[in-house]
Specification:
single chain, 254 residues, alpha/beta, TIM Barrel, globular
Length: 254
């Protein structure tokens, strides 16, 4: 049976890890290098690194800090933020990323996903979809959740997967940082639409939220969280032990 992955997320702004609620009110947390080392040693299955203001500020992703993070950890690393061209993919991969996450860049140029998948393989291309409910519809947002694209989300995600995205990270803006559980309705709609790994992001408040996620939606491959791990509210070893106790397959390393 395929194990469920537990993935901490580093939202990086100006070289520091930050966290907010509903993508707003960002506060300083820690050094990305120190946190990355901690998660790698604590049994995280993967790590996600987002330069969360790169797209909004119209600049390239910070590669100096990324390189230091990649050198520090021994688990797969997915990197996103300001990925707009094949050259951006190349630069980030050369800094040590295993997978590249794209959101605003694909909205601006939908052909980017297909081009990257052809050059680097589907497994390297991750669609990061920031989605929020607007007038009863799941809507795609760009530039770190700041801009409503007007696009219906499920159709957009399906199209990106058909073009070559090998994995989908679904970031629910509605539940981000609220700590009341993952957005099961939104996740169910995505899992129904695609046949690639789906990662749930946004809303984790405790161990039970991960248990509910994987028991309610067995098709979800991984759970991603930030603040509950950053602030020590839940540790990865205790989370994995609890999931195993519930009969949910996880990789135990420590």
């Amino acid at each position: 049976m395929i194990t469920k992955r537990i993935i901490p997320c580093l939202d990086v702004r100006d070289g520091r890890v930050v966290k907010g609620v509903n993508f707003e009110g960002l506060s300083d947390v820690s050094s990305p290098v120190e946190l990355a080392r901690h998660y790698s040693e604590s049994g995280a299955d993967e790590l996600v690194f987002y330069d969360i203001t790169a797209s909004y500020e119209g600049r390239a992703l910070f590669t100096d800090i990324l390189r230091r993070v990649a050198e520090t950890i021994f688990i797969p690393l997915t990197v996103g933020g300001g990925i707009n061209t094949i050259e951006d993919f190349d630069r980030v991969l050369k800094c040590g990323a295993d997978k590249v996450s794209v959101n605003s860049g694909a909205i601006r140029n939908p052909a980017l996903i297909g081009e990257a998948a052809k050059k680097y393989g589907d497994q390297c291309v991750v669609l990061s979809a920031d989605v929020k409910r607007v007038d009863g519809e799941f809507r795609v947002f760009a530039k770190g959740g700041r801009v409503d694209t007007g696009m219906e989300a499920i159709g957009w995600i399906r199209r990106c997967v058909e073009n070559g995205a090998g994995e989908v990270v679904l970031n629910s803006i509605d539940t981000d940082g609220v700590k009341r559980g993952f957005d099961l309705e939104m996740l169910a709609a995505v899992c129904e639409a695609v046949r690639v790994p789906v990662i749930a992001s946004g809303g984790a408040g405790g161990v039970e939220d991960f248990v509910t996620l994987f028991k309610t939606l067995p098709a979800v491959d991984a759970g991603l969280a930030a603040s509950i791990f950053h602030f020590g509210e839940v540790t990865i070893p205790e989370l994995k032990a609890a999931l195993k106790q519930e009969g949910i397959p996880v990789r135990l390393t420590i």
